[in-house]
Specification:
The protein contains 13 helices and 19 strands. The protein has about 425 residues and is an alpha+beta fold. β12 and β13 form a beta hairpin. It binds one RNA strand of 90 nucleotides through α3 and α4.
RNA sequence: GGAGACUUGUCCGAGUGGUUUAAGGAGCAAGCCUGGAAAGUUUGUAUACGGGUAACUGUAUCGAGGGUUCGAAUCCCUCAGUCUCCGCCA
């Protein structure tokens, strides 16, 4: 959520930035927010005047009762009736104005960093880095969904029977490989200084609001009405919300946290070959890394996180590229996003396996996540997160790229984690 | 799921309608004291939104939200959470 003082002081920058997101009427929105905020201030100070008077009267009445002047006290009481009525009216107008401001701010996306290019969609993302060579597959090479069947390591039909489409079973070496990947990713994250958490897989509404999934995008999350909980779409939600409503000490920054969780996404309306096999699931596994940092260093930290993610891909011997997303393709809360994609050799396409973003103060403002340097005023921290990594597409790419006529070769780095060298 | 007790500031803790503008203590910070430190002592020590160049000042916040009252940490209602006991349970 953007901050009103920021919108006031950097109005032109904010509007220009929002326009990078194809935001049709950024100017109008920002102008009307500022006007509503002026109104809010006016109402607030009028209300404060009334309340100050009412408090004063209450104190005077107290004194009078004490000194036995009950009659005078009763006379004073009459004055309060009018004040109360005015206060009530001002209060409800104020609440109304505050709600309108809040609703508008909730639906307003983050202002992209000044370095972010214009662009209306995925085609205009910028390739920031490419690494590795695309493997030449032997004749008879298969896409991962056929490999999964051939080696009996993933069962999509069984998932449909037990739950529904998008909830596969991993089986035998498939399951062990998943577990190996999770352990490998967690091991690398904790070595890099991230504290590991095992988080709840359901969150309450306040947490969904804190990281920006609510109130706008409840459609992407599974919802449990009996208890008013949401299944997490990413570990970012519980892990970042650990720090909601806190004031950190500057010397404790950066805070680095990571966690493995299954992730649940409804992804309504998806279909076709883009969602075939492991390409898009309703439940998938992911290791997430999160940092809470001082605003001065957040862009250095973003590069650090990018390097962390790409080093994993190198170790897994997967060809990858890093995209710098353009304004039109960036997520709602992000100021700057890198997407990491691996090449899936049999499908012959790039698959997104990580999205690593700097949210600047957009999340921390919603979360009320601040830090304090000595006696200075609390300031909003910057938050960042990244997938490190999402499993299914890594698995798809591993299976397809490393397939041989003899079986699927496990990258060396994973062998100690899964305990076998080939799936055959 | 049932019954009861409870939730106060950074922490502990007092407070059942009006000098509570939240006692007292601990911690922390600064000053004094000291050769230096400890002890002692004094002062300060929350957050949000306003007004003011500033000193300062107004309002709100005692788990959350509502209500009663001229006035609520205190009384009433709803909800959440913690603890104890009972029931059920991996």
């Amino acid at each position: 959520m953007l901050q009103l003082p920021y919108l006031r002081e950097h109005k032109e920058d904010a509007i220009a930035g929002l326009k990078k997101r194809n935001n049709l009427n950024a100017t109008e929105t920002v102008e009307s927010l500022i006007a509503m905020d002026d109104e809010r201030k006016r109402l607030q100070s009028e209300l404060d005047t009334r309340l100050a008077r009412a408090n004063q009267i209450a104190r005077e009445i107290g004194e009078m009762f004490k000194s036995g002047k009950a009659a005078e006290a009763n006379a004073l009481k009459e004055e309060t009736a009018a004040i109360k009525e005015e206060s009530k009216e001002l209060e409800s107008k104020l609440a109304e104005t505050e709600n309108s401001i809040r609703d508008m701010l909730y639906t307003l996306p983050n202002v992209p960093c000044y370095m972010i290019p214009f662009g209306t969609g995925p085609d205009e993302n910028v390739v920031a880095e490419e690494h590795g060579t695309i493997p030449k597959l032997h004749s008879g090479a298969m896409p991962h969904w056929d490999l999964a069947k051939k080696y009996d390591i993933i069962d999509f039909e069984l998932g449909v029977k037990v739950t529904g489409a998008g909830f596969p079973f991993y089986k035998g070496k498939g399951a062990r490989l998943q577990r190996a990947l999770i352990n490998f990713f967690l091991e690398r994250a904790t070595t890099a200084g991230y504290t590991e958490y095992q988080a709840p897989l359901m969150v309450n509404e306040a947490s969904g609001i804190g990281t920006g999934q609510l109130p706008d995008k409840e459609g992407q999350m599974y919802y449990m009405p009996a208890d008013d909980y949401y299944m997490i779409p990413t570990a970012e939600v519980p892990i970042t919300n650990i720090f909601r409503d806190t004031i950190q000490k500057a010397e404790d920054l950066p805070i680095k946290a990571c966690g493995y969780t299954p992730c649940f996404r409804r992804e309504a309306g998806s279909y076709g070959k883009d969602v075939r096999g492991l390409n898009r699931l309703h439940q998938f596994d992911k290791v997430e890394i999160v940092q809470i940092v001082h605003p001065d260093v957040s862009y250095d930290v973003l590069e650090e996180m990018r390097n962390h993610v790409t080093s994993l891909l190198k170790e897994l011997e997967l060809p990858y590229r890093v995209l710098q997303l353009c304004g039109g393709d960036m997520g709602f809360a992000s100021a700057y996003t890198y997407d990491m994609e691996v090449f899936s050799a049999a499908q012959e396409k790039w698959l997104e396996v990580s999205s690593t973003s700097n949210f600047e103060t957009f999340q921390s403002n919603r979360l009320k996540l601040r830090f304090k340097d000595g006696d200075s005023k609390p300031r909003l921290a910057h938050t960042l997160n990244g997938s490190a990594l999402a499993l299914p597409r890594i698995l798809a790419s591993l299976l397809e790229n490393h397939q041989t006529p003899e079986g699927i070769r496990i990258p060396k780095v994973l062998v100690p984690y899964c305990g076998f060298e080939m799936i055959d």
